[in-house]
C-alpha cells in the first residue's frame, strides 16, 4: 500500500538553496553546462515562498527549472512525483536530469510533493490523469480535457493549490489570456497564504512578474541577480507599446523593412 504523504508543520520555502558542484560536471563544453550562466557555476538561494525568474529566450530558464524539478523528484517533461506523461519521448529532449546530477540542494525539510507545469506537455499530463485517475477527487472525475487550455490549467491547479508541496511553473502565461493571468495571480495568492506551498516560476509576463513580495531574479549570461519589474526589458518594451501602440508597431515594421533592404543589397552585391 502506498504511504500517504505526511504534512510538515513548517512554512514554505522548503527548498532553501541550489548550487552547482564543479566536480560533478564531466564536460564543461557539453550542453547544458556550456550555457553562459553556468560557466562560473550557480548558487541560488530561496528566501521567500514565491520566486520568479525572468530572462530572454535561450538564457537557460527552462533548463534550470527542469534541473530543479528533477531534484524534487518530478519528471523533467512535466508532472509530479510518480506521474509520467503518456508520451514520455518528450523527456528525451530535456536536459534537466543531466543538470540535476551536477546540482546539490539544501532542504528544510525535503518535500517532493507538488507539480512541475510545462505548457507544452500540460494536455499530455492531463490526459494521463483523466484516464488513469491516479489521484481521485471527491465528486465526478476531473475531466480536465473538457476545458480550454487556460481553463483546464487553472482548474487543475485550483484542485491542488491547498496541498503542501513545491510547484514549478515554466512560462504558465503561454496557456493564459491576460484575464486568466489575473486569475492565476489570485491562485498564487491562495498558495502563498496557505503557508505550505513553494512556487518557483519562469515567465515573460510582466503581469505575473509584478506579484507583490516575490523574489524576482533576472537570468543573464552573468548569472542570476535581483531585479525590479520596472527594470526588466519585458516591462519596458510593453510600456513603450502601451504609450503609442500604432506608432510602436509602425516603428518596428519600418525597422524591419530597412533591414530587409540592407539584406537585399548584400545579396545583390554577392
Structure write-up:
With 270 residues, this protein is of the alpha/beta class. It folds into 2 domains: 15-231, Rossmann fold (3-Layer(aba) Sandwich); 232-270. The chain is 35% helix and 17% strand. It has 8 helices and 9 strands. The chain has helices at 61-71, 96-100, 122-132, 149-158, 178-194, 206-209, 233-243, 245-269, and strands at 15-20, 43-45, 50-54, 103-107, 114-118, 165-170, 197-202, 215-220, 223-226. Strands 5-6-7-3-8-9 form a 6-stranded mixed sheet, with helices on both faces. A 3-stranded antiparallel sheet has the order 2-1-4, covered by helices on one side. Strand 8 and strand 9 (223-226) form a beta hairpin. The longest helix is centred in the last third of the chain and has 25 residues, at 245-269. The protein is globular, with a radius of gyration of 20 Å. The model has no long low-confidence stretch (mean pLDDT 82).
Essential attributes:
single chain, 270 residues, alpha/beta, Rossmann fold, 2 domains, six-stranded mixed sheet, three-stranded antiparallel sheet, 9 strands, 35% helix, membrane, iron transport, Siderophore_ABC-ATPase, cell membrane
Q: What share of residues are in beta strands?
A: 15-25%
Q: Roughly how much helix do the residues carry, as a percent range?
A: 25-40%
Architecture per CATH nomenclature, i.e. the level-2 architecture of the largest domain: 3-Layer(aba) Sandwich
Order of helices and strands: EEEHHEEHHEHEHEEHH
